[in-house]
């Protein structure tokens, strides 16, 4: 066959570093025109390639012969074979091994003249080679050296595949000659490129026949199977069979039906299959797979519902192999106590009478850091006893240092304490944190001017903690006080994803297929949605994480608000206007080692 060199775009030559099998394309979606990973092996077009070289390292030269055979479904579609002038002497041992002499190569074209035809031959096919990193390494180096773009095709290595399919009892090694003898192929390798490529074709067909027993039927499964998956992954691969390719939640369960791990995906089947590939290297997941006996799928209307159901299932069952979102009830709050001289109190839950509070915080440490920021900004007392307005009590060291107005000794009246200490905190928690921000920034400036940079960094981290908590709480309150909110978002297939949210909780979800009027679906979702009663606090009916997932979905540019029972708003002078300051403070803190223990 003859091939017209295509007009391939040239690239700037770059230095080439030889890779390994792990660096080869692994079956993930690539450029247009390459076979899809879901293509069956019977329908996949393969270009089986072999190179003969001068024996050196891949440096853009050294190729002496190229042989390639294109096959599909056991049928030969084309052949490309040519000698290549490497532009350098051939070592004598290479001549003895291959029979290729210097005289044979003198009239042969150089590799830069052969590459266009070879790259065209590879187009739209899967590259197959025995010990593929070696052959691919030489070709990539040649492309880099001579200004051609390497097309990065999907690669299947018959040597790696044989290591997974054949046991040591069947073959002593995975050399091409050994495998050709084992499969009794009509073509035997001779250390000539085209002959070895034809032998590799026969070996490939023999290996594909063996893959059926391992339930490997598609290109993607074959590429992953050739990699170093564990025996547990191979043994439990059947758990991924029969799962739906829809959005939802998947649950790995043990023999006694106990949930081991809960996850979510827009495509349950594809995501679960990934746990049985070489890409999954987490030790705890390997341990989980060893204990898993089945996988349960919970189909959802769209990804938002899947994310919410995942959070609820993790909270309900606390699966041992999930690390995040397991204990949403373990949050803490800061609240202003109800007494003549209020103080900040760290509590596990809010009561119906609590009016000034901040949270929820995921950890006691983050709550204490925010409390320290408040104490730096306003003269709020830090002692815990309940103070009397009639009798005094001894002052603590903070009063002696001037960091507390000493209400314990009645140095400050109840009204003055309320104006100086309590009112700014109430305003910051409910509406405007300007007083706290100004006070903390001023303190940072004083410390920085005195070159007390570590202390300034501590105050900065406290400022960030205060802002982070107030921004989060005000965003949550804006959503959770709405009795009902209906929203819709365009789906990838042209339909609509519909959600009904009540007091910050996902009460109903549905999908309107393309061409189906979404209003009717919304009415049905609303009619069957969960009843959610109003409650107290920023997250009265759902975890903070669930409400934040809903917020993220609602705030996407392509989400449309359809109906709402009341206005959705945030304070005009709320904490949100300090978001840029918060981002800068967090970025600065991330570049500095922690200097404070709380």
Task: State the helicity in percent bands.
Answer: 25-40%
Report the portion of residues in β strands: 15-25%
The radius of gyration is: 34 Å
Strand ordering within the main sheet: 3-2-1-4-5
**Can you tell me the residue ranges where pLDDT is under 50 for at least 5 consecutive residues?**
1-32, 593-598
Q: Structural class of the helices, strands and pairings? A: alpha+beta
Determine the number of helices (DSSP H or I, runs of at least 4 residues).
20
Mean pLDDT: 88
Overall 3D form = elongated
Termini separation comes to: 76 Å
- Quaternary state reads single chain
Largest sheet: 5 strands, mixed
Beta strand count: 15
Describe this structure in words.
Residues 245-323 form the GIY-YIG domain. InterPro entries: DnaQ (IPR006054), GIY-YIG_endonuc (IPR000305), GIY-YIG_endonuc_sf (IPR035901), GIY-YIG_UvrC_Cho (IPR047296), Ribonucl_H (IPR013520), RNaseH-like_sf (IPR012337), RNaseH_sf (IPR036397), UvrABC_protein_C (IPR050066). This is DNA polymerase III subunit epsilon. The protein has 598 residues and is of the alpha+beta class. It has helices at 92-98, 102-105, 111-122, 132-146, 158-165, 176-183, 193-211, 219-225, 231-235, 268-274, 283-291, 303-317, 364-377, 397-400, 414-430, 434-449, 453-480, 518-528, 544-554, 579-590, and strands spanning 45-53, 63-72, 75-83, 126-129, 155-157, 248-253, 259-265, 294-299, 332-336, 344-347, 357-361, 485-490, 496-502, 505-512, 559-564. The strands form 4 sheets. Strands 3-2-1-4-5 form a 5-stranded mixed sheet, sandwiched between helices. Strand 12 and strand 13 form a beta hairpin. The radius of gyration is 34 Å and the shape is elongated. The relative contact order is 0.07.
């Amino acid at each position: 066959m003859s091939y017209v060199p295509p007009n391939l775009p040239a690239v700037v030559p770059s230095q080439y570093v030889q890779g390994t099998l792990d660096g080869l394309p692994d079956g993930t979606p690539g450029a247009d025109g390459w076979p899809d990973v879901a293509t069956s092996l019977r329908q996949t077009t393969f270009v089986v390639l072999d190179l003969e070289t001068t024996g050196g390292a891949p440096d853009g030269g050294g190729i002496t012969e190229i042989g390639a055979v294109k096959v599909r479904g056991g049928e030969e579609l084309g052949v490309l074979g040519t000698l290549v002038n490497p532009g350098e002497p051939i070592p004598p041992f290479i001549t003895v091994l291959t029979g290729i002499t210097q005289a044979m190569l003198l009239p042969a074209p150089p590799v830069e003249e052969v590459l266009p035809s070879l790259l065209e031959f590879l187009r739209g096919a899967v590259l197959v080679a025995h010990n593929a990193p070696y052959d691919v390494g030489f070709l990539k180096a040649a492309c880099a050296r001579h200004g051609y773009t390497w097309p990065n095709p999907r690669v299947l290595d018959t040597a790696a595949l044989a290591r997974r399919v054949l046991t040591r009892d069947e073959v002593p090694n995975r050399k091409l000659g050994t495998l050709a003898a084992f499969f009794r192929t009509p073509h035997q390798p001779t250390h000539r490129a085209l002959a070895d490529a034809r032998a590799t074709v026969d070996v490939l067909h023999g290996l594909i026949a063996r893959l059926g027993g391992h339930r490997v039927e598609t290109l993607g499964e074959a590429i992953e199977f050739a990699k170093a998956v564990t025996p547990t992954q191979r043994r439990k691969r059947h758990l991924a069979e029969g799962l739906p390719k829809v959005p939802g939640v998947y649950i790995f369960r043990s023999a006694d039906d106990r949930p081991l791990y809960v996850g979510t995906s827009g495509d349950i089947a594809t995501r679960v299959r990934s746990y049985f590939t070489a890409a999954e290297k987490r030790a705890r997941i390997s341990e989980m797979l060893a204990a898993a006996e089945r996988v349960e799928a919970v189909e959802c209307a769209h990804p938002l519902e899947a994310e919410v159901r995942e959070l609820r299932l993790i909270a309900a069952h606390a699966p041992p192999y999930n690390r995040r979102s397991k204990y949403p009830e373990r949050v803490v709050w800061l609240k202003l106590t109800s007494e003549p001289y209020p103080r900040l109190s760290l509590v596990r839950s809010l009561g119906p009478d609590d009016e000034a509070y901040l949270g929820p915080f995921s950890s006691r440490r983050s709550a204490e850091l925010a409390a320290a920021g408040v104490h730096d900004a306003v003269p709020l007392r830090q002692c815990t006893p309940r103070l009397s307005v009639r009798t005094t009590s001894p002052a603590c060291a903070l009063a002696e240092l001037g960091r507390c107005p000493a209400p314990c000794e009645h140095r400050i009246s109840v009204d003055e304490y309320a104006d100086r200490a309590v009112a700014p905190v109430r305003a910051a928690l409910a509406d405007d944190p300007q007083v706290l921000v100004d006070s903390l920034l001023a303190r940072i400036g004083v410390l920085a001017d005195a070159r007390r940079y570590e202390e300034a960094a501590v105050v900065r981290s406290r400022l960030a903690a205060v802002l982070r908590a107030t921004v989060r709480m005000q965003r949550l309150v804006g959503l959770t006080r709405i009795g009902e909110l209906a929203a819709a978002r365009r789906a990838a297939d042209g339909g609509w994803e519909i959600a009904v949210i009540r007091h910050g909780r996902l009460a109903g979800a549905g999908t309107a297929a393309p061409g189906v009027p979404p209003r009717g679906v919304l009415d049905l979702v609303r009619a069957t949605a969960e009843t959610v009663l109003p409650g107290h606090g920023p997250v009265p009916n759902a975890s903070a994480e669930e409400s934040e997932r809903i917020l993220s979905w609602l705030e996407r540019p392509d989400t449309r608000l359809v109906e709402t029972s009341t206005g959705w708003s945030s304070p005009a002078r709320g904490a949100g206007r300090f978001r840029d300051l918060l981002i800068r403070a967090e970025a600065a803190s991330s570049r500095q080692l922690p200097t404070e223990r709380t």
